[in-house]
Write a structure and sequence with these properties.
By secondary structure, the protein is an alpha/beta fold. It is 19% helix and 34% strand. The longest helix is centred in the first third of the chain and has 12 residues, at 35-46. S-adenosyl-L-homocysteine binds next to β2, α2 and β4.
């Protein structure tokens, strides 16, 4: 977390709040997640049943936003594919990440509900937007030993962080603490 300067990812008017543990607006009605949540999700990925001591293999992030979490993941994974449905944010993330020259981060414009089959199988899939259910494509694109970490909303709209592990025997599903993410939406914005 110390390796990635968060103030580079928010508007200069918000830079003085960049090191507080709060989410901040990044435009187009979206927010950069708070650092403790970014760290929590990254730790969960590193604890995947198949994770190696040397770090993760290929990771898919759904919801690039400003690119902050992709930059954090680039320190932990061999390759990071990060997909965003809003062109404005996809381009902003590209501009934010350019000076960092992270050769292992691949930004994609598209509907993350379909995952990104070309990069599969993934050691980890991290979702930064909350939907009512987990799209089947995500679990299908998870490698054996891989882990999916995603916020999922219940019927009342209350989100919880959920973990799906893929083992040789099948999938195991764990529900963790309550969280608050922007909504997962289908199609391009
Ligand atoms: N990890 C980001 C958090 C951005 S907020 C960061 O570090 O800044 C979540 C993002 O998910 C928003 O930008 C939103 O547009 C995007 N999103 C929502 N539904 C999506 C979908 N189906 N595919 C791709 N991105 C999606």
């Amino acid at each position: 977390m110390r390796a990635v300067e968060r103030h580079r990812f928010v508007d200069s008017a918000l830079a003085n709040q960049a090191y507080e543990d709060t989410s901040l607006p990044i435009g187009l009605g979206q927010t950069i997640s708070k650092p403790s949540v970014v760290a929590r999700m990254a730790e969960l990925l590193l604890d995947a049943p198949g994770a190696r001591a040397g770090g993760l293999g290929r990771v898919l992030e759904i919801g690039t936003g400003c690119g902050y979490q992709a930059a954090v993941l680039s320190c932990l994974a061999q390759e990071v594919y990060s997909i965003e449905r809003l062109r404005g944010l996809h381009e902003r993330a590209r501009a934010n990440l350019r000076p960092l020259r992270l050769a292992n981060v691949h930004l994609l414009l598209g509907d993350g509900m379909l995952g990104f089959p070309a990069g599969a199988p993934y050691a980890g899939i991290l979702v930064a937007a909350g939907g009512a259910a987990l799209p089947p494509a995500w679990c299908e694109q998870l490698g054996v030993g891989g882990r999916l970490v995603a916020p999922v909303a219940d019927a009342a709209g209350v989100q919880s962080l959920q973990v799906v592990d893929r083992t040789a025997q099948g999938f195991t599903h764990t529900v963790l603490e309550a969280v608050h993410f922007v909504p997962l939406k289908s199609g391009l914005g």
